[in-house]
Amino acid sequence: MQKLQLLQNQFNPTSDDIFFHIVQAPPDPIFGIANAYKADTSNTKIDLGVGAYRTDEEKPYVFEIIKKLEREVVNDPTLNKEYLPIEGLADFNKGCQKLMFGQNSPLIASGQIVTAQCLGGTGALRVGFEFVKRHIPGDVYVSKPTWSNHNQVIERAGLNQFEYPYFDPKTKGFNCAGTIECLSQARMGSIVLLHVCAHNPTGVDPTEAEWLQIADVCKKRRLVPFFDCAYQGFASGCIEKDVFAVRKFAELGFQMIVAQSFSKNMGLYNERVGAVHIVTSNKDISARVLSNLKIVIRTICSNPPAIGARIAAKILTDEKNFNAWVEELKTVTGRIIKMRTLLKQELDNLKVPGNWDHITRQTGFFTFTGLTPEQCDLLTKQYHVYLLRSGRMSMAGITSKNVRYLAESIKAVVQKK
């Protein structure tokens, strides 16, 4: 970063080539893996990089309910291409609130939740942190490790960030004691970024009792919770259970921010469907917050796109559509859970050195395997298995057909001296 900044500062306004000083930026690690996988001609290649759902035939999956509702939206003669309001589609925003906070949430009834449609989960994070920068600036505490784009989004918003020790490499589980100790020393009024469920990249989530400990330290230090909910439904398979943390913090009276995404649980990846929620203390303050949130959105993207939100709204506001979506989501998440079990069985059957219980203890799209960067490099170069060097593996890329080969490849790199 310092080297890049130094080269950027060498811009010479008198030069004929005004872009000569710009250096080649590194590729995004996740999308870089995806591109390398596509270029690989091996018949045994496995893509465990990008967190996008795949069928057991390794094909992208579009929800049947999404196909149906998309046709309805496209063929609706009453719809047009006019701009949505800055805060987005009203029905979508109302549906998002109920999905996140509960159908009968008193916060919704009292007008204490401000919601705006955003460009997917990343857009919700960007809008949320820009709002934080303008109105409640403070240090941001981020789990170690976290999704790499979190750090970049927070940096672009101009906020200082610190890490709290989330993952315990010895147990391959949640480091609750380390998290609590770190947050108990955080500056009063700091913001703490919390993964609602299916933590990316570790697949490790706090228990309900541990969430209460986190809530307690946040209360004592007056920390502002900023939840990122990208995988509702993918941790336990239950959309209600997976948002326990958000609803419990709301019940405890926290004012907070929540980023919500439908890229994964509705498969609306390229439609960029998300929302940001800000929970306030009363309706009057909500009105003031919304007015300022709209200014943030106006300067970032002006207003959001309509098609994806209209599809999602038809699910979130219609009981029949909602039930169909939930059943389909259970099938999707069930396959990922099954792949965890199969992979662990294969590793155990092959007597791969080490304990692999964490594969079935962890939840969601990802598993933090515990493999070293060197072992991950070898998996890719020699066995055509593509994953992050951190050892993060997307479980959606595992199938009943490639799980044995994957286990054999892991055994080979683990045993290699």
From TrEMBL:
Spell out the reaction equation it catalyses: L-aspartate + 2-oxoglutarate = oxaloacetate + L-glutamate
Q: Where is the Aminotransferase class I/classII large domain?
A: 44-410
A GO cellular component entry from the record: mitochondrion
Needed cofactors, names only, are: pyridoxal 5'-phosphate
Question: Could you tell me which Pfam families the record lists for this protein?
Answer: Aminotran_1_2
| Gene Ontology BP terms | amino acid metabolic process
Record GO terms (molecular function)? L-aspartate:2-oxoglutarate aminotransferase activity; pyridoxal phosphate binding
EC number(s) recorded for this UniProt protein:
2.6.1.1
Q: By its UniProt entry, which CDD domains does this protein fall under?
A: AAT_like
Q: Which UniProt keywords apply?
A: Aminotransferase, Pyridoxal phosphate, Transferase
Q: Which domain of life is it from?
A: Eukaryota
The answer to keyword Transmembrane helix applying to this record is: no
The Swiss-Prot or TrEMBL record describes its family as follows: Belongs to the class-I pyridoxal-phosphate-dependent aminotransferase family.
Q: Quaternary arrangement and interactors, per the entry? A: Homodimer.
Q: In its UniProt entry, what is this protein called?
A: aspartate transaminase
Please tell me the species this chain comes from. Answer: Paramecium octaurelia
